[in-house]
Amino acid sequence: MTDLLNVDDALQIILSRIEQVSSEDIELESALNRVLAQDISAPTNLPPFANSSMDGYAVRSEDIQQATRETPRRLAVVMDIPAGKTPEKAIDTGQAARIMTGAPLPDGADAVIPVEDTDANWRTWINETTAQQVAIYRTVESGAYVRAIGEDIRQGVQVLKNGTLLRPQEIGMLAALGFPRVKVVRQPLVAILTTGDELVNVDQPLTPGKIRDVNTYTLTGLVHANGGVVYPLPIARDSLEEVRNLFKSALQPKPDMLISSAGVSVGAADLIRTVLEELGEVGFWRINLRPGKPLAFGHIQDVPFFGLPGNPVSAMVTFEVLVRPALLKMAGRVAKDRIIQAVCDEDIKSDGRRSYIRVNLVEKDGVYHATTTGTQSSGALMSMVIADGLMIVPEDVQSVKAGTTLDVRLLK
Ligand code: AMP
Ligand code: MG
After folding, report:
1. CA-CA distance, 356 to 180, in Å (whole number)?
2. How far apart are CA 304 and CA 298, in angstroms?
3. What is the pTM of this model?
4. Burial bucket for residue 366 (CB in 10 Å: 0-12, 13-18, 19+)
5. Which residue out of 192, 215, 230 has the highest number of ligand 1 atoms within 8 Å of its CB and is therefore the one to mutate?
6. Could you give the 3-state DSSP secondary structure of residue 248?
7. Burial, 165: exposed, middle or buried (Cβ in 10 Å; 0-12, 13-18, 19+)?
8. Tens digits of per-residue pLDDT, 187-234?
């Protein structure tokens, strides 16, 4: 098997030739699942001012140290502080202010008494005009029910790091800190090239000898799932002219990556090879991988190019194993393979290549067990539809005995 390139070596060569794409400024609304391309420090404190966490009364805690339900402490209510307003004055000894959740704490006050712990009726409280007095039924510590200035975030501290994947909570944080736009890594633009006289698009009738184009759809899904966007192209027929034109159209939008499927196997029409040799420097690799031995990788006018095998399962598996890490690197994302260990419940024959076998998983007593999905033909796409994962039979292994524990790369 020495003439076949090891999968890990192939991936290393590929990754050494891939760089993160540039960044762009986008509106915060569109930032979900994008990768931050700047460090974010807090320009303000959060919260920006001390405020009440309850509807109630802002008080001086020292004034109500003896207060109980039986012997309440009466305070003069000197103002009303709704949320969004600033207090018009400070409160003094013996005074309180009616305050709403989120409203700024007035000077002089150091705590809030919830309305439930006073003689005010909390059901009608909101609609009442401010009473002159309030009876306080309990004591509180200084700082009670007050959200201190900067309690969440201190002005100037680093809040988010370059490279962070933006989830709803990070987007909320950016909103809280006043960033209507953010710098994020561009979504790599990927052109997917499909060729074959036998292929028709999904909306066309199947005539004798034809099959529907699958790879455009699976590869588009895989690109999207891994942070890229796709430049759509029509299917090219097996003619030098059409394949050449397809590559020209594919380069038009200045893509970050080109992916073709089919045309790289031995005996496949030499058209792709001819055009690749005209346009760029591309190596044809035979990889120690099953499914998916033939693979082309190189650059066409400085754009990284992957020539994947044409069989739908091979195209998907080679994408998972070799293209996905490259795309994630371009997109500034961390490549984390979801790998678990499972006991293989069947004897399996292998041919010495590293094999990615479609399996179903069941958990028994905390241990995963794997069984194959049936036919492992590289054209049998149903195996990918029903599989929970790809069980990895290492290179140089000819047979796996039932009971052996192997890595499984999860697909679900
Ligand atoms: P080739 O490398 O062109 O010989 O293609 C290998 C196999 O993959 C053939 O059976 C093709 O019909 C099939 N194939 C190629 N491209 C596609 C595609 N886009 N969708 C589905 N099957 C394809
Ligand atoms: Mg073909």
Report:
1. 45
2. 6
3. 0.90
4. exposed
5. 215
6. helix
7. middle
8. 999 999 999 999 999 999 999 999 999 999 999 999 999 999 999 999
